[in-house]
Design a protein that fits this description.
The chain is mainly alpha-helical and 176 residues long. Helices cover 70% and strands 3% of the residues. It is built from six helices and two strands, in the order H-H-E-E-H-H-H-H. The radius of gyration is 18 Å and the shape is flat. 19% of the residues are buried.
């Protein structure tokens, strides 16, 4: 609740972009989770976590979190970046839940899964159709599609880096 109050006050303040408010909000949420994990680690065995009847190690949990992040938070980040750097014609107050957003969710999810499960270089593969469409479009649409592809790719690389960091940390932990 405290984080949401701060976020609402920052948004109402009017001196920050939507992207800045989003990043501050998410940083506060991540920091609070880090603090909770730091408190819980001495109390609970975190090598594996049982959820929904499945025993998961930290790498699978990280992959699940990264997938949610690149799919859903990726949409919001792309929306906010497009509002900042894009044409005034692109600027919107509310992120629509439409076909383009669903395709972006699938695009980013596929990119992260290919990068983490097969080879990191494959992160670019799902963005190729978007780039081909962009190349064949007029200049305004090409710019929009390339911004969406670039930000989506950056979000996926960040998700992959998170999963890789967790995997390296889990493999270097004592007893692994």
């Amino acid at each position: 609740m405290a984080i949401e109050v701060v976020t609402i006050r920052l948004r109402n303040w009017g001196h920050l972009s939507g992207l800045s408010v989003l990043l501050i909000d998410q940083a506060m949420h991540i920091l609070s989770l880090v603090i909770l994990v730091a408190i819980a680690t001495p109390l609970l065995p975190l090598e594996t976590v049982t959820t929904f009847g499945m025993e998961l190690n930290p790498v699978w949990i990280a992959l699940g979190c990264a997938l949610i992040g690149v799919a859903f938070m990726g949409s919001i980040i792309i929306f906010e970046v497009s509002n900042i750097v894009g044409s005034d014609d692109w600027s919107q107050d509310i992120l629509p839940y439409d076909r383009a957003r669903v395709l972006g969710l699938l695009e980013r999810s596929a990119a992260l899964l290919l990068a983490t499960m097969i080879n990191p270089a494959l992160v670019v593969l799902p963005f190729i159709p978007r780039v081909v469409v962009a190349i064949r479009s007029d200049a305004t649409e090409r710019a929009r599609q390339m911004i969406v592809a670039a930000v989506g790719l950056a979000v996926c690389i960040a998700g992959w880096a998170f999963v890789a960091f967790v995997a390296l940390s889990a493999n270097s932990a004592p007893g692994s």
